[in-house]
User: What shape does this take?
Amino acid sequence: QVQLVESGGSSVQAGGSLRLSCAFSGFSLDDHAIGWFRQAPGKRREGVFCVSAEGKETGIESEKGRFTVMRDKAKSIAYLEMNSLVPEDSATYYCGTQLTPWPGCTTRGYDYWGEGTLVHVSS
Assistant: This one.
């Protein structure tokens, strides 16, 4: 049974940093992608940073340099490190994984989700 649990969300000031955690079970990062998504009120869920089983990185933050994903396969935890936060980063952040491989970082390709953790960035 696949389970994902996010934690680490908090309120921070603009310019600050946060590290979110995604503890998971029921699958292996050797075979499955892990993705971080976010959803602000009234907006669609968007792919922030996804990493395929092969290590390919995609997502809106994957090339900007502010965010990064670290995968701890031994502990079954994936982290989203966020730096230089701005108010527009405020959202509920979700981690997810795929039943079968699907390219990119879109909700269409992800089948399992956690409950989310809330991030608020104040100006």
